[in-house]
Amino acid sequence: MTFTTDPLTNPPTDSLSTADQIDLYRQMVRARQFEKRCYDLFLQNLVKGTTHLYIGQEAIATGVSAAMSEGDYTFVTYRGHAHLLVRGTPMGPILAEMLGRSNGLMSGKGGSMHLIDASRGVLGSYAIIGAQLVIANGAAWAAQYKETGQVTVCFFGDGATNIGAFHEAMNFAVIWNLPIVFVCENNQYMEYTPIRSVTAVDRPAADRAGAYGLDPVVVDGNDVEAVYGTAAAAVHKARTGGGPTLIEALTYRHGGHSRADPGKYRPDEELQAWLAKDPIPNYRSALIGRGVAERDLDLIDAQTRHEVDEATEMAKSGGLPADELLWTNLWSDGSSGWRT
Amino acid sequence: MALVTYREAVARGIAQEMRRDESVVFLGEDVAAAGGVFKTTVGLLDEFGPKRVRDTPISEQAILGATMGAAMAGLRPIAEIMFSDFYAVCWDLVANEMSKSRYMADGQVSFPLVIKSGNGAGLRFGAQHSQDISNWAMAIPGLKVVCPSNPVDMIGLMAAAVRDNDPVLIFEAKGMYAEKAEVPNGEIVDSLGKAKIIREGDDCTIAALGMMVPRAMRAAEILSSRGIEATVVDVRSLVPLDVTTLMAAYSRTGRLFTVEENPRLCGWGAELVSIIVEEGFEYLDGPPVRITTPHLPLPAADNLEDLALPSVERIVSTITEGMKY
Ligand SMILES: Cc1ncc(C[n+]2csc(CCOP(=O)(O)OP(=O)(O)O)c2C)c(N)n1
Ligand SMILES: [Mg+2]
Question: Quick one: signal sequence residues (chain B) (predicted)?
Fold first, then answer.
């Protein structure tokens, strides 16, 4: 696979201190271990409904988030657990939400696909393909209007590039010069269909960029530092009035689309090739090669296991949401009545 | 007091709120420089400038997405969907996103936004630019829905909608844009969820909405000359629905007729009838009767569109017949 060079600026990798690099590793490990636990809990029938895991794609949310500032806005899809984690949402409330418990992030009323943490600027996970792209523009517009300097980052899948909302959103963001960064996580598949088999161009996001006056930006989505560098340039551009960027990050999900989908529709060679590009062990080797002590990384792994265990205990200890919650918070006054 | 058209009242309501609150912004297709295809927003760009009054591309999803996202991030946007029929191309934002997100988030976010559109028949635009879709909106939990029937209500309900912290859809009866009324000077602020009794009579209650309200009033005058005295209620708000006022009028008269512009099935009147039958069965003096547009797409020709909509004559004859029970 070839990657086009980033036309924004070259990744400022040397601006990442060793501590920053170790933190990138830590965030990816947290995302990975968290998702593995979700999967286990799903198999135990504790996570209900459906759930979409991020295993294999961790470098993207991690690298982008590292380029963002506090107060920036995040919009994401139903495959968004990790995107909240890297913005600072603790594991416990996310897990509890998936278990449908009262100590869930949204008291159990949202579920796995609808995570939101407004206190950390995560203005939502969206389960209707494409919706978050047009909505994210609005948050970016509000920041622009109020001159707050906040940047909005909007993540979406390769599949979303074929829905109308994607195209409306790109044009709109450009003509209004919005402070927004669109990140297409091209994991090569929609649910079960390879994206290339249903798309008129090879690179579903980048090859459309020109139609909206944007540069085509493709980055290795399994290289956390490359993602960070590309995102940092895009975030900087947005924050300084330069308008939107559309980034296509190439990656792969290790598992199936959702729930217990074994992903059998994917050729084995393809899977093996991508597993060899697993962002986490590769970054671990790179860090060790740069002189980071292996035991420091082992410690992170162990600390994360502990964090996940604690979060699991916290989530399981939560009670079921009270019946009264059915009736709350449809309206801004907390109520839900439709008649006077 | 001054004579103001229904069309001018739209801009006046918006301007009143934009003057008061910097966070109120307005966007839509052809709304700024051109003042709107129905000329309902003339003067807003001049007074408030291009930062607050913005023309958009023909991108209804982008318009409502921007509206929702901006509301979530601290603005109070008003969006125009030119013809309400066009909601069909951006209904996800309305039916799945802005209506459900607060509930799903258990209150973490709110959506102080307004969407206004030209709605319904009267201008012979044919089936894709003439349907009254207020009943679509009523069917979605999480939306407030108002249908002003005169210029004063338009201003007051616009103000109430902008000040409300939830998504409010305002349906402008486009057949009434040229109607005039005396409007008081100064600020006008109404409240959502309030029906209004606009005529009192002991024999029956006529509940009407939007463009059907003046027709119901004319029908009531004719019925009066024939010895039937009707109470007429302007429903004004579908969500919240003012069951208290409607129930009081109905229970006093024992008979209910609805006059609805929407196609027959699942119109607001069906809901109202079910409520009064469930909760006020003992007051019934005769079957509640709905007077609606038939369950058809609207034809364009003058005579056929007129035939489809509830006319004063049809209202009078249906009620005269219904009263015989
Ligand atoms: C409008 C819409 N159509 C279809 C679906 C069903 N659906 C859910 S996820 C998905 C695949 C999306 O693929 P992609 O955008 O590549 O994201 P990924 O799941 O790979 O992260 C589909 C078709 C949906 N949720 N919304
Ligand atoms: Mg995909």
Answer: none
